[in-house]
Amino acid sequence: AAVGVRLDREDRQVLHSLFDEYSRMKRVRRELDDVDVALLVKRHAPRASVQEVYIDEAQDFSPVELSVLFGLCADPDGATVAGDTCQTINPGSSFSFHDIVEAFCLHGGEGCE
User: Fold this and answer.
1) What's the 3-state SS for the chain?
2) Which of 44, 90, 96, 101 has minimal CB crowding within 10 Å?
C-alpha cells in the first residue's frame, strides 16, 4: 500500500473540507465516481451471481472495486486476476498485489489463514 504521511489536525480538517466539497459537487452534478459505482453494484447485484470472474488490468481498480468483483463470484477460487504495477493509468496509484490477496481472503479464498 502507499506510504502514509502523518497529518496534523489542521491538515486533516482541510482534507475533510475538500472531500466534503467533492461530495457536494458530485451531488449537484448528479455524477458518480468509480467507488460510488462499485458500491451501487454491491448493493444491488445478487451476491455470488457468477461462477467465475476474470479481471484484467487489476492495477487500475481500487480495492473497493476488486472486493465487489470478488463478491460477485460464487467461488473466490473462480477469480482470475492479471495486472502490471508498471502500467497503471492512475498516477499515484497505491495498487499492490498484497491488496488483491487481502480482498481474495476477505471473500473466503482458498489458502488464506
Assistant:
1) CCCCCCCCHHHHHHHHHHHHHHHHHHHHHCCCCHHHHHHHHHHHCCCCCECCEEECCHHHCCHHHHHHHHHHECCHHHEEECCCHHHCCCCCCCCCHHHHHHHHHHCCCCCCC
2) 44
